[in-house]
Amino acid sequence: MLLHGNADPDAVASAFAVQQSFPEVLIGLPGGLDRVSKVLAKTLNIEASEDIAKLPTARLLVLDTSGPEQLGIEIDISRAIVVDHHTRNERWEKARLYYCDDTKSSCSEIVYELLKAAKKKPSRDVALALLFGMLTDTGYFKFAKPTTLIMFSELMAIHDIAMDEAMGLVDVDTDISERISQLKGAQRLKYWKVGNYIIATSQGSAFEASVCKSLLSLGADIGFVGSQRGEQFRISARATQAVVRKGIHLGKLLGVVGSETTNGGGGHPGAAGLTGIGDVEAILNISAENAMKVLKKIDSSSD
What we know:
By secondary structure, the protein is an alpha/beta fold. The protein has two domains: 2-167, inorganic pyrophosphatase (n-terminal core); 178-302, Diaminopimelate Epimerase, Chain A, domain 1 (Roll).
């Protein structure tokens, strides 16, 4: 089983739930874990390895990964079973099985449904992990859908888990390096005004998603933050719910940018990513230009 690079808690929780229900499954992390996921893995004793050479390739399950490029390694897609909740990606269409439900707020919800269908009762630790996956991928319910809340309450009831236990499962303070990245992101930002909306871009070397969120807190409606590592680049994008309700879908937008630049992008309406080979500044500009076109179209249609 493989997860996307810098795997987040939703991906790790989903993988842990599958692993505990089907013990022969191994979790591979070709791109490692993010900071919160590392604490989650330690808290729940989740066994995973970044040495993917040990993984069998005859049967390969890929979870919570919007496109093959998010893995950071080459795989035989025809052998893969892919379960995801991001915008459907044509790059996965050749998979052995591709199950994508973008109506779900998190992959944890899909996995919980699949466990119920298989009549697998989650252990208390698995329930806690899935609850935390749902919490983090919905911004602690800020972007949750009604079905998320229903599943969340079901999982709480199975093991009589209180809300404070689920929300306090992982307690990670923002460290100084992340705060410095946010400040540098503010120093390097560029912005454009489109009607009553603001699009901002910035560059850094780490914590792209965190810096992106900080741009929104500064007043941007859409933020794109990128980093360059040799020929490789990575971009995170975030949008306020106000512009999402107007019609912005960052997952589709970065999917188009990925296709235009022969890279891979995708995600949710309000949160998405793009990775590949190229100049990050150029890709950021293309992303901002595409966002401006969409906003102008939205403005003109509402006149």
